[in-house]
Design goal:
145 residues; 6 helices; mainly alpha
Length: 145
């Protein structure tokens, strides 16, 4: 009688333990992939920023080289696009800001006044490079924010 109960308990507990173990491995692999992609993007951003910091003024060749690096950083961004849009929407807007200046008007106006949110990110940095005389300080500001 005791052996039958032991077998029945083992028959129930063993699949549950196996399932939990497999789920931990899958979530760990998923989290590892997310972390690896974030780190790749951060490395690409660091390369871009250090490339800009080493230059005092921008020639046409320098601008083209920086645009290529921005393109490479945007490819890395697209690899984490879904995660950032879902998990960090504010950070995503800072990384790839669509507008130079945006007024946040969707606030509860009785308690909060609309506020100004300035844009930054890879898109605006690339557009800024098309200006007649881009400045290093402004370009770095767009990327650091």
């Amino acid at each position: 009688m005791n052996m039958t109960r032991f077998r029945a308990a083992a028959f129930i507990v063993l699949p549950i333990v196996t399932f939990i173990t497999l789920m931990d491995r899958q979530s760990s692999a998923y989290a590892d992939l997310y972390s690896a992609r974030i780190n790749e993007f951060q490395r690409e951003q660091d390369i871009l920023i250090s490339s800009i910091e080493t230059r005092d003024h921008f020639s046409t060749g320098d601008i083209e080289q920086i645009k290529k690096q921005i393109f490479s950083a945007r490819l890395k961004l697209k690899a984490i696009d879904f995660w950032l849009r879902y998990l960090e929407p504010i950070a995503y807007k800072k990384i790839n800001g669509p507008l130079p200046v945006e007024w946040e008007t969707e606030v509860f106006e009785k308690f909060e006044k609309p506020y100004k949110r300035s844009g930054a990110g890879l898109t605006l940095a690339e557009l800024y490079l098309d200006e007649p005389a881009p400045e290093k300080k402004e370009l770095l500001r767009l990327l650091h924010e």
